C-alpha cells in the first residue's frame, strides 16, 4: 500500500527510487561477493570480544589502506581513502551482522542504517564527505562511535590528501606513508611527523572528580542526625538513586581518555563498586585542612572548596556532580584548550543580581558573595551562572583563589550546612576569577539538557530516540527526593541508556 501511495502521489519520484534501488542491488551483487568472503574471514579471525569498538579496531587495521591516526583532539581516528569507502562500509555491515547490532553512518547530523542493499549507494554519497562516523549498537549509551576522516590518493603525485582539516598534515607523500606504516597494526601515527606534540592537542593528563553522598548510609545518617533533626533535612541535597553508577559509566564509555576518577565522600563505598586502578575513593578527612573543626560537613560548597587538595590530582580536571552525565563522546578539547586554558560554559542570561537574602535560593546567595569578591578585585560585575554541565577546573588556579580569599574559604569550610555567607567556588567563583586572570575562556552554550520532574518524561524519550545531547543533568529539587515515580523513571532511563557495566562494577551488578 505504501508503494502504491507513493506511485500515485509522485510517479516520477517512484520511478527514480525504483531505478536507484535496482542499481544499488546490482552493484552490491556484482561487486561484494569476493570481498564478502575476505571480510568474513577477517571478522572470524578477530573473534567476538566484549568490546564492539575494539573488534572493529582490530579488524579495520587488517584491511588494506585503512589506517589509524590521532585526530585533532588527540584521540584515535580512522583515516581511509575515498575510493575505498565501499570496502569500509561493507566490512562494518558484516561485523554488525555477526555481533547482532545495528550500524549507522552518521554525517552532518543525519544517520543511515547500513544494510546489504544500501552499502554502495551510501558509499557514493560519502564521496564528497570530509569525515563521518560509524555508530554501533541499539542503545545510545552502549554504542561505539568510530570517527573516520576521508583522504584522497592521487597516484599522479604519489601523495595522499586529507579532504578535511587535519591539524597534523594536509598532504602525506607516499614515501612518508611507507615510512610510518606499521604492517602488524595497520597504523600510521601522524604524531611521528613532528619533533614535539603539536599545539592543537591536549597533551596533558585530565582527571575526573565527583562529590557523592548516600542518604541511606547508616553512619552518615547518624552523623547528620547529631547536627540537625532528620525531619528538618532537605533530602533533595543528599538523595542517592544510583546516579553515581551510571555517571561513571558515562565517563567510561564517552571519555576513555580520563586518567583517574576521584570520588570525594564521607559515605561507604556502594556494594557494586570493586577496587579498580582508575577509581580512587577519597574521604573528607583527606582533603580538609587538619587542626580545625571542619568535619563532619554536609555542605557541598565547603567540600568543593577543598577539591584541589586531593592527593595526586592532575593539574587539569573535570568536576561532576553525580547527577550529571556525558551523553555522547567527549574530547579533552570540550573542557580545555590545547594550551591548558579551561573552558567555561556559562548560561547565556544574567541571574546574579542584588545582595544575599534569606528569600533567595542558597546557590544564588553563594554566587552573589562570589560576585562581590570579583567586583572588589577586578572592578567588573559578573552576572552569569555556569550551566548544569561538567566543570573544567585547574588545580593551580583554585589554589591561587584560596590564597587570595583565604578568610572566605575558611568561613565556608566551617559551615556544616549551607548558609547565606557561603561562596560557590567551583560553580561560580572559579569561572569568573579564571576568566579575569586569563586562565579560562568562555564557550557558547553547551549541547545539554536540564531534566527535572516536570520535563523528565519527554526528555527521556528524546534521549532514547537518538537525539544527541553531549551532557545532561537529572536534577533534584522541589521535593523530588519524595517523588518515587521520578526516581523510578530516572533509574529505568539510565539503565536503558547506559546498559553496559564499567570495569569497576562487581559482576553481580546490573
Give an account of the 3D structure.
- The chain has helices at residues 2-9, 11-46, 52-61, 85-99, 119-125, 174-180, 218-227, 243-254, 284-287, 300-304, 362-378, 395-404, 406-414, 425-436, 456-464, 484-497, and strands spanning 66-70, 76-81, 103-107, 110-113, 131-136, 145-154, 159-162, 171-173, 181-182, 187-188, 206-212, 261-265, 279-283, 316-321, 324-326, 342-344, 391-394, 440-442, 448-451, 471-474.
- It has 16 helices and 20 strands.
- The strands form five sheets. Strands 1, 2, 3, 4, 5, 6, 7 and 8 form an eight-stranded mixed beta sheet that branches. Strands 13-12-11-14-17 form a five-stranded mixed beta sheet.
- The two termini are 44 Å apart.
- With 510 residues, it is an alpha/beta fold.
- Helix 15 links the parallel strand 19 and strand 20 (471-474).
- It is globular.
- Helix 1 (2-9) crosses helix 2 (11-46), helix 3 (52-61) runs antiparallel to helix 4 and helix 4 (85-99) packs across helix 5.
Can you describe this structure in just a few lines?
The chain is α/β, with parallel strands linked by helices and 510 residues long.
Amino acid at each position: 500500500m505504501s508503494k502504491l501511495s507513493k506511485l500515485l502521489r509522485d510517479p516520477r519520484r517512484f520511478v527514480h527510487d525504483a531505478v536507484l534501488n535496482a542499481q544499488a542491488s546490482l552493484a552490491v551483487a556484482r561487486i561484494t561477493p569476493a570481498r564478502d568472503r575476505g571480510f568474513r574471514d577477517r571478522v572470524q579471525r578477530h573473534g567476538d570480544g566484549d568490546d564492539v569498538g575494539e573488534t572493529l579496531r582490530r579488524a579495520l587495521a587488517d584491511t588494506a589502506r585503512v589506517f589509524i591516526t590521532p585526530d585533532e583532539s588527540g584521540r584515535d581516528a580512522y583515516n581511509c581513502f575515498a575510493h575505498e569507502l565501499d570496502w569500509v562500509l561493507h566490512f562494518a555491515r558484516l561485523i554488525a551482522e555477526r555481533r547482532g547490532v545495528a550500524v549507522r553512518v552518521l554525517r552532518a547530523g543525519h544517520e543511515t542504517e547500513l544494510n546489504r542493499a544500501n552499502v554502495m549507494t551510501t558509499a557514493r554519497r560519502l564521496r564528497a564527505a570530509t569525515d563521518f562516523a560509524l555508530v554501533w549498537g541499539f542503545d545510545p549509551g552502549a554504542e561505539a562511535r568510530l570517527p573516520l576522516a576521508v583522504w584522497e590518493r592521487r597516484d599522479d603525485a604519489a601523495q595522499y590528501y586529507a579532504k578535511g582539516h587535519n591539524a597534523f598534515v594536509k598532504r602525506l607523500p607516499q614515501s612518508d606513508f611507507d615510512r610510518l606504516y606499521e604492517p602488524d597494526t595497520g597504523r600510521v601515527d601522524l604524531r611521528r611527523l613532528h619533533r614535539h606534540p603539536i599545539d592543537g592537542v591536549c597533551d596533558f593528563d585530565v582527571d575526573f572528580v565527583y562529590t557523592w553522598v548516600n542518604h541511606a548510609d547508616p553512619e552518615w545518617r547518624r552523623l547528620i542526625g547529631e547536627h540537625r533533626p532528620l525531619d528538618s533535612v532537605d533530602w533533595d541535597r543528599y538523595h542517592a538513586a544510583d546516579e553515581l553508577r551510571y555517571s561513571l559509566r558515562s565517563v567510561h564509555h564517552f571519555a576513555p581518555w580520563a586518567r583517574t576518577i576521584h570520588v570525594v565522600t564521607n559515605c561507604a563505598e556502594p556494594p557494586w563498586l570493586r577496587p579498580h586502578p582508575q577509581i580512587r575513593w577519597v574521604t573528607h578527612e583527606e582533603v580538609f585542612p587538619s587542626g580545625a573543626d571542619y568535619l563532619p560537613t554536609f555542605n557541598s560548597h565547603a567540600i568543593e572548596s577543598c577539591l584541589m587538595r586531593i592527593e595526586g590530582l592532575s593539574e587539569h580536571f573535570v568536576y561532576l556532580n553525580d547527577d550529571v552525565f556525558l551523553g555522547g563522546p567527549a574530547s579533552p578539547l570540550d573542557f580545555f584548550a590545547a594550551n591548558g586554558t579551561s573552558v567555561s560554559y556559562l548560561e547565556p542570561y544574567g541571574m546574579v543580581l542584588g545582595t544575599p537574602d534569606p528569600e533567595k535560593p542558597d546557590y544564588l546567595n553563594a554566587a552573589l558573595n562570589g560576585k562581590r569578591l570579583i567586583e572588589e578585585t577586578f572592578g567588573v560585575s559578573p552576572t552569569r551562572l555556569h550551566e548544569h554541565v561538567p566543570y573544567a577546573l585547574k588545580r593551580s588556579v583554585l589554589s591561587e583563589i584560596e590564597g587570595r580569599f583565604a578568610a572566605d574559604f575558611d568561613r565556608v569550610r566551617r559551615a556544616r550546612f549551607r548558609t547565606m555567607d557561603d561562596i560557590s567556588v567551583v560553580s561560580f567563583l572559579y569561572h569568573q576569577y579564571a576568566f579575569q586572570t586569563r586562565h579560562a575562556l568562555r564557550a557558547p552554550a553547551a549541547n545539554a539538557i536540564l531534566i527535572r520532574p516536570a520535563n523528565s518524561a519527554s526528555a527521556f524519550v528524546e534521549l532514547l530516540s537518538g537525539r544527541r545531547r553531549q551532557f545532561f543533568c537529572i536534577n533534584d529539587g522541589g521535593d523530588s527526593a519524595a517523588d518515587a515515580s521520578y526516581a523510578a523513571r530516572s533509574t529505568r532511563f539510565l539503565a536503558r541508556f547506559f546498559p553496559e557495566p564499567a570495569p569497576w562494577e562487581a559482576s553481580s551488578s546490573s
